[in-house]
Design brief:
Layout (H helix, E strand, L loop, with lengths): L9 E4 L4 H24 L10 H28 L4 E4 L1 H7 L8 E7 L7 H12 L8 E7 L4 H24 L6 H7 L7 H27 L4 H4 L20 E6 L16 E6 L10 H16 L4 E6 L3 E2 L4 H9 L8 E5 L17 H14 L9 E4 H4 L26 H7 L23 H11 L3 E4 L7 E2 L6 H19 L5 H4 L6 H6 L1 H4 L4 H18 L12 H21 L4 H30 L16 H8 L10 H27 L3 H21 L1 H9 L8 H19 L1
Helix pairs in contact: 1-2, 1-20, 2-11, 2-19, 4-5, 5-7, 9-13, 15-21, 19-21, 19-23, 19-24, 19-26, 21-23, 23-24, 23-25, 23-26
Bound molecules: 2-acetamido-2-deoxy-beta-D-glucopyranose (NAG) (2 copies).
Length: 736
């Protein structure tokens, strides 16, 4: 194609309102400068009669504010220059007909049939099988780290149901293509009776399959008569446990076999079940290990140049997502250095006001900002990779291999199954670069972020695409503890990267732009936020009781920059949140979760990192979530916070909440009564009183859960007792 006729396959939209954002950022910086001026000019060192505590508290305030400023600066760097992309799929179709399109391998990872029910897993698998893409070019691989015959049975059933489901999706242009989600959201069509009939038949066979699988899942094992139906079940004769078994690999639909067709005679995508070998003496490296086994096995079977990977709870909600991603890779001018196209992580089961927070702002503003700074991080799911980049190739203009050169003569997949099993064995990776230079990286709690960094550090670019119609929908944890534990794991892994040789400033020095190296800090430094936040939650209220002022008088000039920063910063956050579709109550919930995460998850993340650095290794705080039951789900849907367990995290939350409450009460009874001029007290302590009131307001659900609720989600009495004691002791210490 001559360059004259070149039309790009994608474009970028200018960010709306970014002038406003920049003015906001600059003005806040100016106000912050005034705050530091005040902190230095009024440092209590100069007055001889000040008690030493006051000096130290002042230093603490100064350091906390310094930290907040640093973090604010990083946030501004991330959001300064966002990029919003869109694609021209019609141009892609015009340039590439079905024959010319590249192959795409899709990896779905599941780990445990008890936590991830097989019916959910196959809904995801069916949703990606039904992509609007030539089926002979698609191969779907399910990695089952649970090594469960229940999952295998479900997939076998799904491969049969696909023969009905795929033609149905084509004919009715079904969206979303996950049968579970589709039948949940779409009522039976009323108009066309032939259509309605077909709809009913398909729904019936889906329900039958689903209840069959559910029955057997409940039973816990596959009955003998079903086992006889497929020779694949024989493999489970050699499985002693999920941690000790040989590789199990079955090609359930072989795309090269002319008999693999749906009921309309059209080809079906290849479908492979893989459970890699597990042995107690070998480390399995969690999801990264599963991903690397899949990369190797798929290279032997289909070797597609592009790989989509999704979590098993994340179904496709947009059947054009693959074509969208290819618009970036196949762009003749700008596609050669793109390693991956990341889609946002969005959730199907958020409640209206997102009681445990969401990743809304991250997905709508921060990742586009990453994109503008050099490329989004890889977030582990909903991402289309270029195979060579994932496999460890360094980017260079000359070496860039055309994907067309990767043509692969496909042998009948069933005939090479034995070779593939060797590729998925434990010993295969011994003394190789897998997990180090090749494939997904091992040794991190956030192996996805680390893998993304290493790809970018090898000179590749990445792209973030957030199409109007959400590409993937996953699940969020539905209890507070699960949410906090999840964030603890993330914050811990990210801080670990920051403290390791993989820190972007070292590792990405050569190939990542400085602003991208800096952008990663917004996540890598999640955990250290806890120090400054804890300080602000505890010390101002403590000093309020002690009678030490920490902020300027409301009536004096210096209060203006403080007021400006506090007010404008929060208004910006609210506008940003509502702008990307949130509700006002959702924003309040987000603020609460912001506080909860910073005072618990991040604190434990820091402690674990310190223990690890001291080689005390294993995490001292084992905090486990619990299996959600009916009550828990009901409370989640009603947006009632679920505590329920006695976790050290809740003790911290309740202690801080109660301490602020006590401070406020003590202030009301003692200080105001003593000082006959209440206004004067407010003038001196205005900021501290307001902060204390805000904290009490944000913590309202905690008081409710500790003292007024009767249901199973209340704070356990032991936690309430312990927290009250701590909070009372702290208050007493302050007053006397
Ligand atoms: C969220 O997921 C849970 C567990 O899968 C489910 O029971 C619940 O109904 C979902 N909630 C919403 C609001 O979709
Ligand atoms: C998922 O897809 C459906 C059907 O196309 C669409 O109506 C819906 O808005 C999508 N969901 C989200 C969260 O975007």
């Amino acid at each position: 194609m001559g360059n004259s006729g070149y039309l790009p396959l994608s474009g970028t939209k200018p960010a709306r309102g970014y002038f406003l954002f920049r003015s906001y950022a600059v003005s806040v910086f100016i106000a912050i400068c005034f705050i530091f001026w005040y902190r230095l000019a009024y440092f209590p060192l100069l007055e001889v009669e000040t008690p030493p505590t006051q000096r130290w508290v002042w230093v603490g305030m100064f350091l906390s504010e310094l930290w907040f400023t640093l973090y604010f600066f990083i946030t501004v760097v991330v959001k300064w220059n966002p990029v919003f992309r869109y694609t021209f799929k019609d141009r892609l179709s015009a340039r590439y007909d079905d024959e010319a399109l590249p192959g795409v391998d899709i990896f779905v990872c599941t780990a445990d049939p008890r936590i991830e029910p097989p019916t959910m897993v196959i809904s995801t698998v069916l949703s990606v099988m039904a992509y609007d893409y030539p089926p002979q070019k698609l191969s779907i691989y399910l990695s089952d780290d649970g090594g469960s015959d229940l999952t295998f049975y479900a997939l076998l059933e799904a491969s049969r149901f696909a023969q009905l489901w795929l033609p149905f999706c084509r004919k009715l242009k079904v969206e979303p293509t996950s049968p579970h989600a589709y039948f949940q959201t779409h009522p039976q069509p009323v108009d066309d009776s032939a259509l309605a009939n077909q709809w009913f038949t398909i729904k019936k066979s889906y329900e039958d399959m689903k209840s069959g699988i559910e029955t057997i899942t409940k039973l816990g094992k596959v009955p003998a008569d079903i086992r006889k139906e497929h020779k694949g079940f024989d493999e489970w004769d050699f499985v002693s446990s999920r941690h000790d078994h040989p590789s199990i690999l079955h090609v359930l639909v072989d795309g090269t076999d002319p008999n693999s067709i749906d009921i309309e005679g059209k080809a079906l995508p290849t479908l492979v079940y893989l459970s890699r070998e597990k042995r107690p003496q070998f480390h399995h490296h969690f999801k990264a290990g599963a991903l690397n086994a899949l990369i190797r096995v798929s290279s032997r079977i289909s070797n597609a140049p592009f790989i989509l990977n999704v979590d098993c709870d994340m179904y496709s909600n947009n059947s054009e997502a693959i074509r969208d991603a290819l618009c970036f890779f196949l762009d003749e001018e700008n596609g050669h250095d793109i390693a991956y196209v990341q889609y946002p992580q969005t959730f199907s089961n958020l409640t209206r006001n997102e009681i445990y927070g969401s990743l809304r702002v991250v997905m709508e503003f921060e990742l586009p900002g990453f994109d503008g700074n050099g490329g989004p991080c890889y977030i582990g799911t909903g991402c289309v990779h270029r195979r060579e980049a994932l496999c460890g190739t360094k980017y260079s203009k000359e070496l860039a291999v055309e994907w067309k050169a990767m043509k692969h003569d496909r042998e009948s997949a069933s005939s090479i199954a034995e070779d593939c099993k060797a590729l998925a064995s434990c010993a295969y990776e011994e003394n190789t670069l897998w997990g180090k230079e090749m494939g997904a990286k091992y040794g991190s709690l956030v192996e996805d972020i680390l893998t993304g960094i290493s790809i970018q550090a090898r000179g590749w670019r990445s792209v973030y695409l957030n199409p109007e119609k959400t590409a993937f929908l996953g699940m969020v944890p539905t209890t507070l503890l699960d949410t906090l534990v999840q964030h603890k794991r993330w914050a811990e892994g990210l801080l670990q990267i920051f403290l390791s040789k993989h820190c972007t400033f070292l590792y990405g020095r050569q190939n990542m732009p400085l602003k991208l190296q800096l952008s990663y800090c917004i996540y890598m430094l999640w955990a250290p936020n806890s120090f400054a936040t804890l300080y602000f939650v505890f010390v101002p209220s403590f000093c309020l009781l002690k009678g030490i002022p920490l902020f300027p008088k409301i009536s004096c000039f210096w209060s203006i920059p403080f007021l400006y920063v506090i007010f404008v910063h929060r208004v910006h956050s609210l506008v940003e949140f509502v702008w990307c579709g949130g509700t006002i109550r959702g924003w309040l919930n987000e603020q609460r979760m912001w506080l909860f995460k910073r005072t618990t998850s991040y604190v434990f993340a820091i402690i674990d990192n310190i223990l690890m650095l001291c080689r005390c290794l294993k995490s001292a705080f084992v905090i486990t979530g619990k299996v959600a039951d009916h009550d828990v789900n009901q409370r989640y849907e009603q947006e009632i916070m679920d505590f329920g367990a006695s976790s050290p995290m809740f003790t911290i939350l309740a202690t801080l909440a109660l301490f602020n409450l006590f401070s406020l009460i003590a202030l009301g009874t003692k200080k105001i009564a003593v000082c006959d001029v209440g206004m004067e007290v407010f003038d001196i302590f205005g900021f501290q009183i307001t902060l204390c009131c805000l904290l009490v307001f944000v913590n309202l659900p905690i008081y409710q859960a500790a003292f007024f609720r009767k249901d199973g989600g209340k704070i356990p009495a032991s936690v309430t007792l312990m927290s009250s004691t701590f909070a009372l002791l702290a208050s007493a210490l302050a007053i006397y």
